Automatic annotation (TrEMBL):
PANTHER family: MEMBRANE BOUND PREDICTED REDOX MODULATOR, THYLAKOID MEMBRANE PROTEIN TERC, CHLOROPLASTIC. InterPro entries: Integral_membrane_TerC (IPR005496), Integral_membrane_TerC_rswitch (IPR022369). GO terms for cellular component: membrane. It is found in: Membrane. Its main location: membrane. The chain crosses the membrane at residues 6-26, 38-62, 68-91, 103-125, 131-148, 190-210, 222-244, 251-273, 293-315. This is TerC family protein. Keywords: Membrane, Transmembrane, Transmembrane helix. The lineage of its organism: Bacteria, Bacillati, Actinomycetota, Actinomycetes, Micrococcales. It is a multi-pass membrane protein. Pfam families: TerC (PF03741). Belongs to the TerC family.
Amino acid sequence: MTVSPLIWGVTIAVILGLLAFDYFFHIRKAHIPTLKEAAVWSSIYVGLALVFGVLVLVFGGATAGSEYFAGYITEKALSVDNLFVFLIIMASFRVPREDQQKVLLFGIVFALIARTGFIFLGAALINSFSWIFYLFGLILLITAGNLLKPENSEKDEANNFIIRIAKRVLPTTDHYDGDKLVTVENGKKVLTPMLLVMVAIGGTDILFALDSIPAIFGLTQSTFIVFTATAFSLMGLRQLYFLIDGLLDRLIYLSYGLAAILAFIGVKLVLHALHENTLWFINNGEHVEVIEIGTGLSLGVIIGVLTVTIIASLVSPAGKAQTAVNNARRHANAYLDLTYTTDEGERERIYTALCEEERQIAGMDLKYRNKVKDIEEIRAEVARAHEAHAKYISK
């Protein structure tokens, strides 16, 4: 698919315009998005991505259109998985909910920059070395295996490492000053935790790019499609975070679905590498006659796996129990942390949500509740939240 410089320029301008619009009209003034606001803007960004895909289909042909949609769906699924880690980072730094939008937008912008760099690097490697498909396929197969582990600890360890280095190198305070990155403490300028959060988010974005870029290159080698599918998958991620916040834990089988998709694309890459083989120690440097997986089949497999994964997660009694218990723990922790937010209405919202989740948990089968990790510790945290609320209302 040949794309003119004019189309490239217009596309980049539209993406930058969307990011600027997001900042000036939604992020500049700190606030907590309502469910309606998050739903409306999530729908708008998904709609824009679909319209762009239709334009690629019309002007680029069926193959280009299928490649775009396969890449967009895969990158969107991986982006949702990234939200789990963003949630952990912001919870560990106790980012006030009204300021979380700015952190997320920074994460999106940094992810777009990092992935764009990897995209052009990947394209250059592919054009120069066809054997790079072997490496990309191996990366995806290893990533798929890691996702099947009981706990995906590598991401957390990477986050902790980045955070420890940042704290050691940068003079910071433990207190937020709104959404400012720099404040004055004891007459000296210091960095607020807001900057540390952004450093942690940026570091994880680089790690995520190492997984996502080989995945989409396994579906298309068109740099334009890779870039646009990646960019549109990141657009609206901020709104999606607030829309599905509380439901992320419900998708208990998402990692298995992503593992299946990445393994499938990894195999597809290896088969393609064999078909284009130039390595002397494989078939004497000659191409290997193998079955290649078409874009239509790839798109069908991706959609099918994600559909089964999401439905299985939503109807699973274990998933419902895990969601309610983990949400109760998150809300209990938020309520106990008096510096979490200065918004009294937000404090009341958190406590109301905690009580509602307790009612849901009480109606669930005990065997599913008790399977949740650290259940006794979570019960103790919820009890402390009730004690804190009783003291608060007795004042």
